[in-house]
Design brief:
Helix content is 41%, strand content 14%. By secondary structure, it is α/β, with parallel strands linked by helices. It has two domains: 44 residues, Helicase, Ruva Protein, domain 3 (Orthogonal Bundle), CATH 1.10.8.420; 143 residues, 3-Layer(aba) Sandwich (Dna Topoisomerase Vi A Subunit, Chain: A, domain 2). A five-stranded mixed β-sheet has the order 4-3-5-6-7. It has a two-stranded antiparallel ribbon with strand order 1-2. Helix 5 links the parallel strand 3 and strand 4. The chain is elongated. 24% of the residues are buried.
Length: 199
């Protein structure tokens, strides 16, 4: 748009690349920032610029952390014999906010999606299987989104873990088909965890 200065247009363009942000919202965000003091904008830019600094995968569960082992895996009060498998960090955060689950996690960082070129090797499935082989695991809870890709990933993982004679459950269908864990409310997630069943 010729009447919008190029630097504002570039900011609008970058905001509109974010998930769930349309062009109107991107414009509102850009013009909101224009009204803020320069120090606030500088701090915002530096914060975003430093987003990945020091972030690494937990050596146990593969969640994101700044330490070698994340705070959940390091927490002695957590049940290390129960592993809840989630697709990504947003799902882990959603389950933690429900404040019902007392075990540990394994973050896959995606699901098997052949159309998008994502196979088992692009996920942390091999690390999960190695973790289970070490022993001490009583239950695996599959908490993947109920999509075709989530179901395919669950079936793939189950095929490798079932011979190890470990209880495999899945969260109950309190999550609507096609829905994502990160958008579910705490009560729904609580019921889904309580009503989990054998897989």
């Amino acid at each position: 748009m010729e009447f919008i200065p190029k630097n504002i247009e570039r900011v609008i363009e970058e905001f509109s690349k974010l998930p769930g942000i349309g062009s109107k919202t991107a414009e509102r965000l850009a013009f909101y920032l224009l009204r803020k003091p320069n120090e606030d904008i500088k701090r915002f830019g530096e914060t975003v610029g430093n987003l990945k600094e020091g972030i690494k995968y937990c050596g146990v569960c593969k969640s994101l952390t700044t330490e070698d082992i994340c705070s959940i895996c390091n927490n002695e009060s957590r049940d290390k014999g129960t592993i809840c498998i989630v697709e990504d960090m947003m799902d882990l955060i959603a389950l933690e906010k429900a404040n019902q689950y007392k075990g540990v996690y394994h973050v896959l960082h995606g699901v098997i999606a052949p159309v998008e070129g994502v196979g088992p090797d692009e996920l942390t499935i091999a690390e999960l299987i190695e973790r289970v082989k070490k022993g001490g695991i009583n239950e695996i809870i599959i908490a993947l989104n109920p999509s075709m890709e989530g179901e395919a990933t669950a079936a793939y993982i189950t095929r490798y873990i079932r011979p190890m004679d470990i209880k495999i459950t899945r969260i109950a269908r309190g999550i609507p088909v096609g829905g994502d864990l990160e958008f579910a409310d705490s009560q729904t997630l609580k019921r889904a965890l309580e009503g989990r069943m054998d897989y």
